[in-house]
Amino acid sequence: MTALPGLKLGPVGLRFRLRPLVVPLIALAVTVFVVALNIRLGDFPMSVGDVLRVLVGGADAAEQYIVFDLRLPRTLTGLLIGAAFGVSGAITQAISRNPLASPDVLGVTPGASAGAVGVIVLASTYGGAASIAAAIGLPVAALIGGLLSAALVYLLAWRRGVDGYRLVLVGIGVQAFMLNLTYWLLTIGDISQAGQALVWITGSLNGRSWGDLIPVAVALALFLPLSLVGAHALGALQFDDDTVRNLGTRVELSRFALILIAVILAAIATAAAGPVFFVALATPQIAQRLAGTARPPLVASAIIGALLVSVSDLVARTAFGIELPVGVVTAVLGAPYLMFLIIRKRREVRA
């Protein structure tokens, strides 16, 4: 695609490419269309005019309840967690220089699952822990579990610095440990607790409220701009450490700060809706291929992540007659894509 004319301000020169600019705009337009469908469709279908009338305060109490209390917070929560997973996955893959890396590998989602299932089981199985678990709450427990697990991965991977390859290997080990911890917690709970926990660890947007939406919105408002500021360092980290130092970038500080942003975004998104698998894995690679860039673009990854979760939630709510957890749909869509990435990576290694 043709490059746009460059811009030069003193010693700073910038060149613009049309494709990386057009792709996010098209994805944003499609996302707005899907969001409108998500708000319109359901057990009580509404026209676009009805929705607009509700948004300006001109509808009756029942329509306002459907839009403001049921559909709008759920739709916006899905939108924002998709964006958070997209940015987190883009940073993780760029730092590790591995398209198969994701926040799952950093231990965020399995750690969050272990924390949430621990609260569900301990809150009613063990009386002494019930008050503590109830005071912590499910989202906070998931957030703490995700952050502690990611911190464990980072510390175990540290050998006078953190290498991307070692980070992935340690992350796979910690991920396996956290998954087995989650399964063990499920075995010591009763059937009702296990059922509640299984719904959460599948990833669901059902019943999400403004209270679930606000923490994700605040996290994105704070950390998306910071990640864009760190995009220069992210580009430098594509090279070996000696080259990065020669470019004037502080390797470990930049790597730690960017990983911290990725972990916080993924942990808060997971705390809001559970581990919605494959979004953080697939979104950055889709954005990179569509935009034709050397590494996953942050803004395009955020928008396509929001689009992927919104489409999956729409399918989960309306396509099967019964409502499915959104994580089931993203897993069905993401599993073939993961196989494609593995086969493609294998061919690259052989070549």
Walk me through what this model shows:
The chain has a two-stranded antiparallel sheet. The chain starts with a strand and ends with a helix. The chain contains 15 helices and two strands. The protein is mostly helical and 351 residues long. A hairpin with a 2-residue loop joins strand 1 and strand 2.
Q: Helix content range of the residues, please?
A: over 70%
Number of strands: 2
Mean pLDDT: 81
Report the β-strand fraction as a percent range.
under 5%
Low-confidence parts, pLDDT < 50 over ≥5 residues?
A: none
Q: What gross morphology would you assign?
A: globular
**How would you spell out the order of helices and strands?**
EEHHHHHHHHHHHHHHH
| Largest pleated sheet | 2 strands, antiparallel
Terminal CA distance reads 28 Å
Structural class: mainly alpha
Query: In angstroms, what is the radius of gyration?
Result: 21 Å
Q: What spatial order of strands do you see in the largest sheet?
A: 1-2
Count of helix runs: 15
How is the topology of this model organized?
Layout: E1 3-9, E2 12-17, H1 18-40, H2 48-55, H3 61-96, H4 108-125, H5 127-136, H6 138-157, H7 164-188, H8 191-202, H9 210-229, H10 231-236, H11 241-246, H12 251-273, H13 279-291, H14 298-318, H15 326-350
Antiparallel strand pairs: 1-2
Helix pairs in contact: 1-3, 1-14, 2-3, 3-9, 3-12, 3-13, 3-14, 4-5, 4-6, 4-7, 4-8, 4-12, 6-7, 6-12, 9-12, 13-14, 14-15
Subcellular location: Cell membrane
Keywords: Cell membrane, Membrane, Transmembrane, Transmembrane helix, Transport
Transmembrane segments: 20-39, 76-96, 108-129, 136-158, 164-186, 213-236, 256-282, 324-343
